[in-house]
Amino acid sequence: MEHSKLTFKQRFQLSRFFKGEPPVSGAVQLTQRRVFILPTRRGLGMVLTIVLLLLIAFVYNNNLVYLLGFLLASVFFITILHTFKALAGLVLQAGFVPPVFAGESAGFTLTVTNPGNQARLALSASLETEQTFSLDAYANKTLTLYAATQKRGWQQLNTVTFSSCYPLGIFRAWSPLRFDSKVLVYPKPSALSLPFPDGSGQQQSGLRYSNRAGDDDFNGTRAYQAGDPLRQIHWKAYAKGQGLLSKQYAADVGGTELWLDYQNTPGFDVEQRLSQLCRWVIDAEDAGLLYGLLLPDCKIAPDCGIKHRAACLEALALF
């Protein structure tokens, strides 16, 4: 677990109260160093009530009002301890985050463990949205917090805030944490289903397409046209909301290996080319083709399968 020491200056940096300490790679235990506590709006109202009661008791010398004021004050101070103990001692650790395509939400998994013999109630964890949960004694729970992605490449997990207002809601204890957890974001696949390039990497322009689904090689899709056979419709694409598309088959393909070359990929900029390559990788894998990837600084030999697909998409994401 993380037990690095902080200097006097670091302890009183405002960023610790909102963004947390530097990212950690292992498990983190919530100690008094990481848990902060302040009165809520309800708690401040309770403070004002106690002050007014004591003022009235002093002016009118009323012992019953004194008793009520001191009783509320004792409840107020005892609640500090109970709210702190709702978080103190919990152990948290980040898990593996599967890659996603740009524009999708990445699911960061966090495992929360309660090592104590008391249940932890009314807990919450927030990233971009808030999720509430409770933990039994000696129990653990895996949470999935989602964060939006926009750009390809590695995306770091932002600050995760664990908090609780247990038991009366007059205090809020919170702990901002940063984990050394990141997700690989693939380029967003192009919405256009352009034909595959030929085996040499040059854009195919003279290939003859067959409108029948037989022994010919699958060679991409195109927009559905009236009269296309029903068996040729790309139902998977339709189910994904990509519109009605028809499968195309090449009657004469030069070579049995498909090379996806960045230099010969259509697009106005780098991102459009990578987006189209991403679409071709997905379509080629769905079609069961042997495909390779040619980038200016990377070459992946033709193959197929889940690992090969992941390697190609990772190369595109980190290009």
What features would you describe in this structure?
With about 325 residues, the chain is an alpha+beta fold. It folds into 2 domains: about 10-185, Immunoglobulins (Immunoglobulin-like, Sandwich), CATH 2.60.40.10; about 210-315, no CATH class. The protein contains 7 helices and 18 strands. The chain has helices at about 10, 15-20, 40-60, 65-85, 235-240, 270-285, 305-315, and strands at about 30, 35-40, 90-95, 100, 105-115, 120-125, 130-135, 140-150, 155, 160-165, 170-175, 180-185, 210, 215-225, 245-250, 260, 290-295, 300-305. The strands form 5 sheets. A 5-stranded antiparallel sheet has the order 2-11-10-6-7. Strands 1-3-5-8 form a 4-stranded antiparallel sheet, with no helix packed on it. A hairpin with a 2-residue loop joins strand 17 (about 290-295) and strand 18 (about 300-305). Helix 3 packs antiparallel against helix 4 and helix 6 (about 270-285) packs antiparallel against helix 7 (about 305-315). The longest helix is centred in the N-terminal third of the chain and has 25 residues, at about 65-85.
